[in-house]
Amino acid sequence: MIVEQLLKSITEEIADMISTKTVIGEHITIDGRTIIPVTKVSFGFGSGGGEGKSKAGEGGTGEGGGGGASIQPIAFLVVTPEDVQLLTIKGKGTISQLTESMPEIMDKFKSIKEEEKKKESSKTSETEAP
């Protein structure tokens, strides 16, 4: 395999691995909330080749290549009928903290929205009163 073919093969494999579904993950719907994971995708590759002669005068060639990718979760989009929130992930260990605190965050968000609705309905009833 010549170097050009090797590079083409590597880039095709990386293209197969990385798609919009890699960056914006599959959504999850829970209790009317849609949670969409957002990730950071990094990749790199390299290849090379050469030829030479040994001391005995024999010729030889060599080729090589490799690549790698890293996928890191960076945020979650939380979509409700009332709002869209972006919850970012910072630092190591945050995924487990976020997973543990997600129900509490959702409950707080729900109670804030309920309070807003109560205030709106009380304002409406005050303006309608004689």
Residue runs with pLDDT of under 50 for 5 or more positions: none
| Count of DSSP H/I helices | 3
User: What letter string, H or E per element, gives the SSE order?
Assistant: HHEEEEH
Largest sheet: 4 strands, antiparallel
Tell how many strands the DSSP assignment holds: 4
N→C terminal distance: 88 Å
What is the typical, i.e. mean, pLDDT? 76
From the helix content, strand content and strand pairing, which structural class follows? alpha+beta
Biggest β-sheet: strands ordered side by side in the sheet? 1-2-3-4
The global form is rod-shaped
Report strand %: 35-45%
What does this protein look like?
The chain has 130 residues and is an alpha+beta fold. Helix content is 42%, strand content 38%. It has a 4-stranded antiparallel beta sheet. The chain is rod-shaped.
Question: What is the secondary structure topology, with strand pairs?
Answer:
Elements: H1 3-17, H2 20-23, E1 28-30, E2 33-53, E3 59-79, E4 84-88, H3 94-128
Antiparallel strand pairs: 1-2, 2-3, 3-4
